[in-house]
Amino acid sequence: MEYIRVTKENLEKEHICCAISNNKDVQVSSKKAWLADRFDEGLVFLKSVERGKCFIEYIPAENAWNPIDAPGYMYIDCLWVSGSFKGHGYSSELLDACISDSREKGEKGLCILAAAKKKPFLADPKFLSYKGFVVADEADNGIQLWHLPFTEGAEAPAFKECAKHPHIDEPGYVLYYTNQCPFNAKYVPVLEAAAKEHGIRFKAVKLDSREAAQAAPTPVTTYAFFRDGEYVTNEQMNDKKFLKLVQG
Fold first, then answer.
1. Nearest to 187 by CA among 143, 235, 221
2. For the stretch 213-223, what's the b/e string if a residue is b when 16 or more beta carbons lie within 10 angstroms of its beta carbon?
3. Which one of 64, 88, 148, 153 is separated from 79 by 20 to 30 angstroms, measured CA to CA?
4. CB neighbours of residue 90 within 10 Å
């Protein structure tokens, strides 16, 4: 497979691989705006030259939009290969490219979020284990921080204290999210509208800075849904799923 690196210079003309083909869609524009501000912080977005979901996105951990302590590590925001791209070894190729680049930049390892059992929008733990990653830390909600050290004895990364015990002191439904995931630009307003229509207590908290994301009460900051203070899921919801959760 041939890959291309998305940069500030080619961002506007490149497809960013998610399940949205229209560059004028608010989901695409919100994600591209988020990416544009991250490139100067060391973010790398490497994708297949063919249109589809086959890419890796990573950034130095000190600039990651997650509450982690991982000095000297590279943090993988997303490694996504799906559809017709699966089963051809592209995940390994993308990861190998990340490893090579990170080594050249003097990083001491990689880290990424997953869980003991595969969760939506998180890395596959079986793949990570196969590639030599091991669990470095785990939050109360089962979200794990996996890492792949490049040298023996490298200090393992960890979650910040604010993320180890995901809980908030606020009743009702509360969603923390960022523009890192393009789907939020469409579906967060959908939830807000559904909550208003049905008289449901709902609050959306947009994490609009790295500092805010690194202080979040959850390891997953792209989308973290709470109900009466307790963490529920990191899976994006439409209005039907939201109402089903409320009614169930």
1. 235
2. bbebbbbbbbb
3. 153
4. 18
Residues in the chain where the model's pLDDT stays below 50: none
Buried/exposed code over 39-75 (b: 16+ C-beta within 10 A; e: otherwise): beebbbbbbbeeebbbbbbbbbbbebbbbbbbebbbb
In contact, 178 and 215? CB cutoff 8 Å: no
Give the phi and the psi of residue 96 in degrees, each rounded to 5. Answer: -60, -40
pLDDT at 16: 81
Only one residue has tokens 């900051």, namely 221
Quote the pTM value.
Answer: 0.94
Answer whether 146's CB lies under 8 Å from 136's CB.
yes
Residues 6+ apart with CB under 8 A from 130: none
Based on its alpha-carbon atoms, the radius of gyration of the chain, rounded to whole angstroms, reads: 18
Tokens of 39: 């490139």
Query: HEC profile for the chain?
Result: CCEEEECCCCCCCCCCCCCCCCCCCHHHHHHHHHHHHHHHHCCEEEEECCCCCEEEEEEEHHHCCCCEECCCEEEEEEEEECHHHCCCCHHHHHHHHHHHHHHHCCCCEEEEEEECCCCCCCCCHHHHHHCCCEEEEECCCCEEEEEEECCCCCCCCEECHHHHCCECCCCCEEEEECCCCCCHHHHHHHHHHHHHHHCCCEEEEECCCHHHHHCCCCCCCCEEEEECCEEEECCCCCHHHHHHHHHC
Q: What are the structure tokens assigned to 217, written together? A: 């009460």
Give the tokens for residue 131. Answer: 């590639």
pLDDT at residue 100, rounded to an integer: 98
